[in-house]
Amino acid sequence: MASSEEDGGGNGAVEEKENGKKKKLGALATTWLIFYNVAMTAGWLVLGIAMVRFYIQKGTHRGLFRSVQKTLKFFQTFALLEVIHCAVGIVRTSVLVTGVQVSSRIFMVWFVAHSIKQIQNEESVILFLVVWTVTEITRYSFYTFNLLNHLPYFIKWARYNFFIILYPAGVAGELLTIYAALPYVKKTGMFSLRLPNKYNVSFDYYYFLIIVMFSYVPLFPQLYFHMLRQRRRVLHGEVIVEKDD
């Protein structure tokens, strides 16, 4: 009996230590996430202000992408940390879903807008830039205030209402940008690998971009209607029952 009581006391001490470690890790994770979301909110705010200032000073969108591209590339690439957040479990979101969303943005920035300079002045590029900026300022400020347990209703309202217009507009901007890039990709053969070659493998970036465009067809409705369900749940308190496939 004495042994059992001592074992029990030992287990209790271990549990207390484990709970203490979890609380400490939880506090550290929360602190890091607050820092990350504040930094991202500030970064996209800087980008948004730079875009407005450029347009006021120049009176045109031509050259806008080039003027803000460094800030855009840094903060959009920095978002890869969100995949790590999901992978290590400090954010309860699907690694796959987050990975697809982040990688698609990085693809648009680096492998379309950055690589194909002839399209940088397209209006569609400015469209998705404006949409991304408003979306990310809203999203990261929402996460920040939520982590601080002080979420203003306007931020919550904006988070679950702005997307109704911004999401389709952003998709339109991305698709039109890829479409505008197709002639240049076909003409130059950029990022393509032709046969014969020592690897005996061929890759055509032109057709790859077309496949990317068609991939929006099944993916966009799923994500859009998921956000609409989330909107009803958060803003109107509806209980959403997900159907099993």
Number of helical regions: 8
What general form does the structure show? globular
- Rg is 23 Å
Q: Report the order of strands and helices.
A: HHHHHHHH
Kindly name the structural category: mainly alpha
- Kindly report how far apart the N and C termini lie: 53 Å
Largest sheet: none
Number of strands: 0
Low-confidence stretches: 1-18, 241-245
Beta-strand content bin: under 5%
Helix content: over 70%
Average pLDDT figure: 89
Care to give the gist of this entry?
By secondary structure, this protein is mainly alpha-helical. The chain has helices at 2-58, 64-78, 81-88, 95-114, 123-147, 153-159, 163-188, 205-236. The chain is globular, with a radius of gyration of 23 Å.
Structure description:
- The structure is a single chain.
- This protein has helices spanning 2-58, 64-78, 81-88, 95-114, 123-147, 153-159, 163-188, 205-236.
- With 245 residues, it is mostly helical.
- The longest helix is centred in the N-terminal third of the chain and has 57 residues, at 2-58.
Primary descriptors:
245 residues; mainly alpha; 8 helices; 0% strand; disordered C terminus
What's the helix and strand layout?
Elements lengths: L1 H57 L5 H15 L2 H8 L6 H20 L8 H25 L5 H7 L3 H26 L16 H32 L9
